[in-house]
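<instruction>
Derive structure tokens from the sequence
<data>
Labelled lines for chain and fold:
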Amino acid sequence: MPIEVINCDTPGCDGERTPGVYTPLPAGSGEGMSLCALLPHVKDPYWLGINEALVTEAERSGASLQVFEAGGYTEISKQVDQLSNCVAGGADAMLIGAVSNEALNSKIDEIAAQGVPVIDMINGATTTNVAGRALFDYCTLGGNLGKHLKEVGEPVKAVWFPGPAGVGSLEQLMSCFKEQTSGSNVELLGVQYGDTGKDAQLDLVENALEAYPDMNYILGSATTVDAATGPLTERGLQDDINTASYYFTPEVASLLESGGATCSSAGNDLVLAKVALDMGVRTLAGEPLLGGAHIGTPASVICGPAAGEKWDNLDQLIRELNLPSKGFQPVFSVN
């Protein structure tokens, strides 16, 4: 099925953008090809959705796919080992959801020099030795949230919970948010970094509630929004502190519907996994990359009833492009 995409001329999608439609190669085009995909983890619905999209596209294309997950963003050495093992195992191409924007560069360069094409998927790596990029547009998502909060008009005193410290893409998200809200009604009280596991985010939220009594907005990962529900309810603050995430999960969608969360950026980014796999097949087949070597997706801010009637646009969410299927469990081998 054709997919609406944005062709980005520069990494980070901060350059010229050209709206377009991405149509993958016909079914069966990947038969006889062996691809390996590396994910940071599969411990939240976002990466489960990416896993499902990779599996679905591999099944359609006919390509053999092996999927590995590192277990978290601190597991750099494990992901480096997984890269080596995939190549040693005969992978024809690599799809990499990098745990670090820079730490994998030398290994990616080494693999590319061996003639194994690498597709930079979702998170982004800074090396130039990749055959293509299908990347989550952190700048647009952070900027969109900032723009939305400005348009709300009321004073916003926010604390950000982006995820692990030192991740370049998350720093870009923060930078674009700050740029969009500079000189506006939006005040950033602080930034709380940490693993995106629910227990870690719960601790961060509880600490922030003590440290920032004036806070009226929690901005962060989908796990942050989910984790914040309990502490806010226990303290009777659910009507005083809004919550918004920079990506979608089933939990966020349910919270938006029930009024337990306010807004979320929707990047339609499960499509990027399909595009990344098609890029790998195209590269191996000697086909040009459709739309260019860097693909992103359009993004918007989706809000529920808690945001007020003016902002409630939950009916505009394209669920199949943002959420995994109900009950989906990780799949690590296809064809």
In short: The longest helix spans residues 45-61. The chain has a mean pLDDT of 90. The two ends are 21 Å apart (CA to CA). Residues 137 and 182 are 20 Å apart (CA to CA).
